[in-house]
Write a structure and sequence with these properties.
With 309 residues, this protein is of the alpha+beta class. The chain has a domain at 65-266: B-lactam Antibiotic, Isopenicillin N Synthase, Chain (Jelly Rolls). The chain is 42% helix and 19% strand. It is built from twelve helices and ten strands. The chain has helices at residues 3-8, 11-28, 36-41, 43-46, 48-57, 75-79, 81-93, 129-134, 136-143, 237-247, 264-285, 287-306, and strands at residues 65-66, 117-123, 148-156, 161-165, 172-180, 187-191, 194-197, 203-206, 212-216, 222-230. It has a six-stranded antiparallel β-sheet. A four-stranded antiparallel β-sheet has the order 4-9-6-7, with no helix packed on it. The relative contact order is 0.16.
């Protein structure tokens, strides 16, 4: 074997090649894409190898919107939307549907500045104690749908908008159930360029790893039941995905009230957030230096991976 072949077959080079190939596939997936500079450092790039395997093993169609009827276990939730709405509206009135109380919600922290709020019912774990106490009927319904691993009440106020983004985990699919909505096309979500407007009592299913955005241009606060539903996968990826949900995704759990469990990833997020804030301050004061340092760091990491030694 010559020196070039020996170098190319090194595990770190093969891993980098796999990352680049899968990240490119994720970036090109669908009709709508993030800007290349953003995609380069987006979380969806770093988890692209896992997500690419999930797409290949998926028993569900790889398209932006899916048929809710293909997930018959979710009919229980849709049929009981008024029961769920009653508890969700009461939580809203009591001020319990709210933003995070600290830097402990890594998955959704960027949404809060746009007015988006949530109350966790469960997140890749047992139901939240606060949810069992405050909305017991909704929790009991969720317990009867084991494919739902994460669930929350989520609101978007008038004027609220969520910028274009990809969610990082392809092992789930997203279910939204309209509870109290404007029932208007002025309040919508757009997934890979296709728009859907929420309606009371109506459910929608989509793949949240496509680029999507949302806006509420009405004068009514939108309330939905927001669920992460396990993506049906072929073996052995189904078993791998179950392990990831039970260990990695569970570490992203956070609290509604003080004293509830916060997962390890969210406990570490406070430190990460402090570094991010320092970067944002540098970006505000000197954009050229910020981007020079950012891309220099990327180049240095790639060089360490590919440099022969």
């Amino acid at each position: 074997m010559d020196a070039v072949s020996h170098y190319l077959l090194q595990p770190r080079v093969l891993l980098l090649a796999g990352l680049l190939a899968s990240a490119t596939a994720v970036h090109l997936r669908g009709r709508v894409r993030l800007k290349f500079a953003r995609q380069l450092t987006d979380h969806s790039t770093f988890v692209a190898p896992y997500n690419a395997l999930a797409y290949l093993a998926s028993r569900a169609p790889n398209r932006p919107f899916l048929e809710v009827a293909d997930f018959p276990e979710l009919k229980l939730l849709t049929d009981n939307w008024q029961v769920i709405r009653e508890e969700g509206l009461r939580l809203m009135d009591e001020g319990m549907v709210r933003e995070a109380t600290g830097h402990n919600d890594i998955g959704f922290h960027t949404f809060f500045k746009r007015g988006w709020k949530r109350f966790y019912l469960k997140w890749y774990d047992q139901p939240q104690p606060s949810a069992e106490a405050l909305c017991p009927r909704t929790v009991e319904l969720l317990k009867r749908v084991p494919s739902v691993h994460g669930a929350m009440f989520a609101t978007l106020p008038p004027g609220g908008r969520l910028g274009a983004h990809r969610d990082p985990f392809a092992g789930s699919l997203r279910y939204h159930l309209g509870l109290r909505t404007p029932n208007s096309d002025a309040c919508w979500i757009e997934v890979d360029g296709r728009r859907y407007s929420w309606r009371d009592g109506e459910a929608v299913m989509f793949d949240e790893t496509y680029v999507h955005t949302a806006e509420n241009a009405s004068d009514v606060t939108r309330l939905i039941l927001f669920c992460d539903v396990e993506r049906p996968l072929r073996w052995p990826m189904s078993g791998v995905n179950r392990w990831v949900m039970n260990h990695v995704m569970r570490a992203t759990a956070t609290q509604n009230v003080e004293g509830e469990r916060v997962g390890g990833i969210n406990r570490a997020f406070g430190t990460i957030f402090a570094v991010k804030q320092a970067g944002q301050r540098l970006k505000a004061s000197n954009r050229r230096l910020y981007y020079a340092l950012k891309y220099a760091l990327i180049v240095a990491i790639v060089a360490l991976l590919v440099w022969p030694y």
